[in-house]
Design a protein that fits this description.
Elements (H helix, E strand, L loop, with lengths): L1 H21 L3 E4 L11 E5 L2 E9 L2 E10 L4 E5 L10 E5 L2 E5 L12 E5 L4 E4 L7 E2 L2 E5 L2 E5 L2 E2 L8 E5 L4 E4 L11 E5 L2 E9 L2 E10 L4 E5 L10 E5 L2 E5 L12 E5 L4 E4 L11 E5 L2 E5 L13 E5 L2
């Protein structure tokens, strides 16, 4: 009798485990980045992943590396004109833009650089009106929105400024309701979702949504695990928030999915190498998580792990 109960219990556990794994997705390892870095910027241009700037053991870096997803190989590209960490990167009109960040002295900058992949060259563009680092960027209809961050005064920024690459011009928009830094943003159905982040030295879970057409904000369900310094990317209409730090003695392995159409959160397969200050970008319906520190604070990594959602 006892053996029958144990067998039945094990069978139920196996069924439950299979159901969980079925929707969790899976992780695979790819070729590591050529250098150890954290607090990097990342973006996809022409099917290649660019990892930009960041912190290295001796300070800020202007290093740029390009990852060929198909070949699983890396190469070094032209360095940024300015060494930066906690910068943000976005792509519009076939060009890569690097916006804001902290310089060698740790002070927020207002620099904007445009990268031409054919010529492998950088050029300065109209400066960001509000100097910021640890900010988030998102692209809607070719225009780049720079949201939140930490200003030159070391205070949390609520600035929400839109850059038009065609006009090389910035315009202010409705400010972020909850100013914060080390936040992330992604686009879903034409609106910008801004998740969690850090304020006054603590993580928060708030989710706020900006509609560029209405120039207005609204609230959405908070992230289950308050985090900052994470990576965020969207795949097939779903947004994934991966990794992070602060509030624990270790970095975060959490991988939480937000579905904009149902406004619900779901836990997915955790990040194999928990990290903060990583880049997360989507290519071919897969999310590549690259670089970042394996421990809170000043640690550095070159890990390249790819998440494949179910």
């Amino acid at each position: 009798m006892h053996r029958s109960i144990v067998s039945a219990t094990l069978a139920l556990l196996l069924v439950a485990g299979s159901a969980l794994a079925q929707g969790a997705g899976r992780w695979e390892t790819r070729a590591p980045m050529l250098s150890l870095r954290t607090e990097v910027g990342g973006a996809v241009l022409g099917g290649k992943i660019f990892i930009i700037g960041g912190l290295v053991p001796d300070g800020a870096s202007g290093r740029v590396e390009e990852y060929d997803v198909a070949a699983n190989t890396w190469r070094v590209r032209a360095a940024l004109p300015l060494a930066l960490h906690h910068t943000a990167a976005a792509v519009s009109g076939g060009r890569l833009f690097v916006i804001g960040g902290f310089g060698l002295d740790g002070v927020a900058v207002n620099s904007v650089f445009e990268y031409d992949p054919a010529a492998d060259t950088w050029r300065p563009r109209a400066p960001l009106p509000t100097a910021r680092g640890a900010l988030a960027v998102a692209v809607v209809d070719g225009r780049i929105y720079a949201v939140g961050g930490m200003g030159a005064d070391r205070r949390d920024a609520g600035a929400n400024e839109m850059y038009d690459p065609v006009q090389d011009r910035w315009m202010p928009h409705a400010p972020l309701p909850t100013p914060r830094n080390h936040l992330g943003a992604a686009v879903g159905d034409g609106v910008i979702y801004v998740f969690a982040g850090r304020t006054r030295g603590a993580n928060i879970a708030v989710t706020e949504v900006f509609d560029p057409r209405a120039n207005a904000w609204r609230s959405a369900p908070p992230m289950p695990t308050p985090r900052s310094g994470y990576g965020v990317a969207a795949v097939r209409g779903r947004i994934f928030v991966v990794g992070g730090e602060l509030g624990r003695p270790t970095t975060y392995p959490e991988n939480e999915e937000f579905n904009p159409r149902t406004s619900t959160w779901t836990s997915r397969a955790p990040l194999p190498t928990p990290r903060h200050g990583l880049a997360a970008v989507a290519v071919n319906d897969r999310i590549f998580t690259i670089g970042g520190g394996p421990r809170p604070g000043g640690t550095y990594g070159n890990t390249n792990e790819v998440y494949i959602p179910d």
